[in-house]
Specification:
By secondary structure, the chain is α/β, with parallel strands linked by helices. About 25% of the residues lie in helices and about 10% in strands. It has eight helices and eight strands, in the order ββαααβααβββαβαβα. The strands form two sheets. A six-stranded mixed beta sheet has the order 2-1-3-8-6-7. About 30% of the residues are buried.
């Protein structure tokens, strides 16, 4: 069984712990992609148009042939379409309530009841998560998407004191000490304005994903590290394929705490 070095924050003696079996899972890019796309599809918020939009008016279609000419809109030399009743008679009203009219309803608007989620088997999702976890120890995959120091051994495991760090500058000092801060600095330089309408909908910028920190339970380091560019922090129970493989590309630079590794062994 492979072992991982536990890095001491004060630079003291390192120790080795055995890695859980999950780190021996083969790399399955197809399964990881399926799990990520499924999670993203299930996270979508249903959206639809306002049902009375374009129909909340007085427009009526009088198709009866036996009504006076001013009260019907059939066989009067005009288009057979509903018209507004706010003029002197029906035929002087503007066409409304149909898709081809000015201000009319959309022909095929988005519907909130449409099912956009994508189901996935539990075993598939579990296998995808295991495979994504194993890729955090794969140097070839991690170095493809991150700035990785050659001296860093994967997976990166810190002693449990790391989860108790309460200040951002202390987290930065630790990352610099072990040569991990270069990826955070790289993420800072890759922030750019989003193209298209997303800017008007609260998604103003695009950011690079940087380090992922995994702890056994929610800890103080959450507030300390959340302001660092591209850094995400998650408890082991909330770990998923989306966090480990952003954009369906596995191999995220991940910092594990010692307790998180032990908890992985007990799953």
């Amino acid at each position: 069984m492979k072992a991982a070095r536990v890095l001491a924050l004060d630079g003291g003696t390192e120790k080795e712990i055995p890695l859980p079996k999950v780190f021996a899972t083969p790399y399955h890019p197809d399964l990881i992609k399926r799990a990520v796309l499924s999670a993203q599809a299930n996270a979508k918020q249903p959206k639809g148009s306002y049902r009375p939009a374009g129909r909340d008016n007085t427009a009526r279609y009088q198709g009866s042939r036996y009504m006076p000419q001013g009260e019907r809109n059939i066989n009067v030399g005009h288009a057979r379409l509903p018209r507004l009743k706010n003029r002197r008679n029906l035929m002087q009203g503007r066409v409304a309530r149909v898709a081809q009219s000015v201000g009319g309803p959309k022909a095929h608007p988005p519907k909130a009841e449409k099912k956009t989620g994508e189901k996935i088997n539990k075993k598939e999702r579990r296998a995808a998560l295991d495979s994504a976890i194993a890729t955090t120890a794969n140097r070839e995959l991690v170095s493809k998407r991150h700035v990785l120091n050659e001296k860093i051994s994967l997976p990166v495991v810190f002693e449990d004191k790391f989860s108790e760090i309460a200040r951002t500058k202390d987290v930065v000092l630790v990352l610099k000490k072990f040569g991990l801060n270069a990826d955070v600095e790289s993420a800072k330089g890759k922030r750019k304005a989003r193209a298209g309408k997303g800017k008007r909908r609260g998604r103003t910028t695009k950011k690079k994903k940087s380090i992922l920190i995994v702890t056994e339970k929610p800890a103080k380091v959450y507030k300390a590290a959340r302001n660092l560019e591209g850094v995400e922090i998650v408890a082991l129970d909330s770990l998923n394929a989306v966090l480990l493989a952003p954009g369906c590309q596995a191999g995220r630079l991940t910092i594990w705490t010692e307790k998180a590794i032990h908890a992985l062994s007990k799953r």
